[in-house]
Request: fold
Amino acid sequence: MKTVSALALALMILVVSILPLGGPTAKAQGPERYDVSWDYGGLLDVFELGTFRPGETFTVRLGVTNRGNFTWNAKDHKHPYHIHLSYHWYDAQGNLIQWEGLRSHLPRDLAPGERLHPFYDPVEVTVKVPEVSFPPPRRGSRHNALIRFDLVREGVTWFSWAGASTLAFYTLVEKAPELPSYSAIYTDHNSTPSIMAAGSKASFPFAVRNTGRATWNRGGPNPVHASYHWYDRRGKVVLWD
Reply:
């Protein structure tokens, strides 16, 4: 029966002790890489020849390929840091108009190297035009706006911040209509009494939204108050103040 010398045994113990857990083939994972390639089909003409209204909402189909080194988690919220496709709005000179666009889900998880085709399995992207006036187009150009599509890993980063490319189109946005100085929308949530006795009083909550251009001052020389008018069933004023 062969015996192992004390020196050989010591060397074997040393080799075993310095091998990493999992064997000599185990490798440390590198930093996550954010990279994407875009496939937009015929959207160039849609944007560059189209005209959009402030506040308008529409849907476009985009294709993307995951050029990074980690899987893009789609709309399964069990996974943290899932991926959405969104956009930013600028004027034609590149000045930011609106950073936060609507979020659109990927149709499925996308592993590195996988592609979503703009016609067969696209990302359905819902876009809303900002409700503001863009500067007029410069002389010799029909465009006054630029939309830049981007991916966002929620709670982590926008892909563009991590060095990934975006997809941009110039387009034309119509002038936003002028808002009246004083305008409001009221909602009582069905809390207004349907029957009240003469001379009685009632209190109930309601919501109001300022849809005009003027600021409502709570105090000062010209404060804004909520009040009411009384009419009869024919619409004739009974009490104004």
Q: What stands out?
A: The chain has two domains: 36-173, 178-241. The two ends are 114 Å apart (CA to CA). Residues 104 and 141 are 31 Å apart (CA to CA). The chain has two helices and 15 strands.
